[in-house]
Amino acid sequence: VPLVAAPPAGNGPIDLTFAQHRTLSPIHLEYQRNLGVNGSMSISIMVEGKLWGLMIGHHRQPHYVAPETRAAATVITDAFAMRVQEIEGRRLWAEQQAHLDTEGRLVRELTRSDDFVGALTAGTMTLLDLFGATGAGVVSAGGVTLIGKTPAEAEVRDLAVWLREHLPAEASSYASSAFSAEFQPAAAYREIASGLLAAFVDPAREHLLLWFRPEVPSTVTWGGDPRKPVLPGSGPVAVLPRRSFERWVEERTGFATPFADWQVSLAQSLAQAVEGVVLRQRRKIDELTGLLADKEKLLTQKDILTREIDHRVKNSLQIVSAFLQMQRRQIADPDARQAFAETSARVMSVARVHDSLYQAESVEEVDLGQTIENLCSDLAGMAGDGHAVELVAESGVMVPYRKAVALSLIATELVTNAFKYAAGPTGGGRVEVSVSSSAGGGVRLKVCDDGGGMPEGWAEARPQGTGLGMKMIRAMLDQINARIEVANTPGACFTITA
């Protein structure tokens, strides 16, 4: 069915943040028919923001999968992805720490030596101890020094010349897992040097650090010849996938294990250390600089992991909210339906905070105005026609995560109550929300409605409904040491200062 943007989106892009479903391309459907499949579903397994794999289900006949089953499958897939990320993260962490330790030892050797080539190739720790290389070398103004299994000295000189001529002026490093495909003379020594990592030491490119990896021959078994062209189609399908699925075996040569991005970065940092220590009159590198660099890398990794956790938490809360909405539709009792709706709104408010954390530059602070704006849009959409929220938000009001969660839950309760109790006899209601900074580095959240206002003695009177909303508001106020002021203007107007 078509997607229609509801006000106030107008002609702007439609927010598909919580959309779960996509149609399939005609080519993919034809591909499935060739396999005898008439029903399928797939869930992306995302690790570190990249597609790691797919959880796929096939059926010979059209097969309906209930929403709650799809949601459960999504939860299982997310749990699997988090486990994969944990395992990969631990392995990568240990490998990076070992390389950082090796690089640190090499740098300390450089600070104690007048011969940087000897410090990198002749000590107890050498370039060969980095990156799983089987060969390494240094090209300098004084010549070529090689260790391990490497091409001949003349061949290394030729590849150094090629790197200087073909790399862009701003490039300080080069990495390839199929070097012979880019530099034809390298085919002669692909068995020992199909993989190459190179880092220039100086802007003039007179000095060069090299690491070599051997060829890793492999056999790839395809479902049909991948070079066979697609077939022209007719009707609504313009092209058709391959109809032949016979085994087609390809022998791959000239490929080595690829160098990871972090390994390229470490090679560049080592080259910079060589330049700083040796080529610039061997200035002493304070060991604290190395410790600070390691700390910065750790903080960067922590930032990435924190963002991924925020993304996963948002997705999990989104699934919980979807479960609550599905359960709500199956309940006939109006009070129970309302309770499920309110609980879903509370969960969604916390999800919005994590969504803001994931998108923000800082992983510790949230743009409160942007978060409340998205939250109010969600609440108005859930409330239905006739309800509107007018928001005035000061830009750049940053608050810590804990305070953002508390204020978001408070805003959810106040806006929901305004829709529920301040609406006219015919339904509908207008709510004004503002977010601004206050004196002393605090923030002010204001929620006002156009209803009849709060009755006298409302604070001591028996609450309408369960009274859970006001209890939660008071608990959140105590948690962040905030205060609330209530006035009738003539509708109820709540001002929270935190």
Task: Give an overview of the whole structure.
The protein has 498 residues and is α+β, with helices and mostly antiparallel strands. Among the domains are: 138 residues, PHY domain (Beta-Lactamase); 131 residues, Heat Shock Protein 90. Helices cover 44% and strands 21% of the residues. It is built from twelve helices and 18 strands. The strands form six sheets. It has a five-stranded antiparallel sheet, with helices on both faces. Strands 13-15-16-18-17 form a five-stranded mixed sheet, with helices on one face. A hairpin with a 2-residue loop joins strand 3 and strand 4. The protein starts with 25 loop residues before the first helix and ends with a strand.
Q: How many distinct beta strands?
A: 18
Which spans of ≥5 residues are poorly predicted at pLDDT below 50?
Answer: 281-286
CATH homologous superfamily title of the domain at 113-217 and 253-285: PHY domain
Q: Would you identify the CATH architecture of the domain at 113-217 and 253-285?
A: 2-Layer Sandwich
For the largest beta-sheet, the strand count, sense and barrel status come to: 5 strands, antiparallel
Individual helix count: 12
Give the C-level CATH assignment of the domain at 113-217 and 253-285.
Answer: Alpha Beta
What is the 3D form? elongated
Class based on secondary structure composition and strand pairing: alpha+beta
Share of helical residues: 40-55%
Gyration radius from CA atoms, angstroms? 31 Å
For this structure, the CATH topology of the domain at 113-217 and 253-285 is Beta-Lactamase
Ends apart, CA distance between termini: 45 Å
